[in-house]
Amino acid sequence: MCPNAVRWSGFIFTAISVVAFSAASAQAGDDVVHERQQDMKAMAAAAKNIDAMFKDTSPYDAKAFKVAAETIRAHSGERLSKLFSSPVVAEGSKATANIDTERPAFDTLAAELGAYAAALSAAAERNPEVLAPEMRMRGGDTKMGGPLAKRKSAALDPMSMPAEHAFHTMLQVCTSCHAKFRAKDN
What is the pTM (predicted TM-score) of this model? Predict the structure, then answer.
């Protein structure tokens, strides 16, 4: 075999390997972005189901309420943090590099999301028949503040809140995370 042929075949093999690796990396990035988007859609649909029950536009169904809360819980916390691990920024994603630079803040919001969802799930278990009055926000609940409120003492345990307040605070966590870590639409 001619030395030039060996050189060219080595070059072609290297070029094919680089293209294949790049395609595999792009595919992996596309898969992660797709998985992120699917998880976000699942959480949004679950939150809409819970919201409809609190607004009385849908009848209260403890099983459906719990399934919705568990959907959010399953897609939050460690799972959410792992889905947004390096590389955070990927084509088709609205995630910003702030997630990498402010990882502790992102991970805290992901964990809080799961804690509020767990509180909602527990409320459904405690109230299998009706959306009970103790699940509703009471006067003064809004004074507890949300994730952006100044805290005078340690944060309240989501399990000690009325479910409706935990739900609204959970939505504030979503809003805070998107405001801080999601690229703005132009």
Answer: 0.78
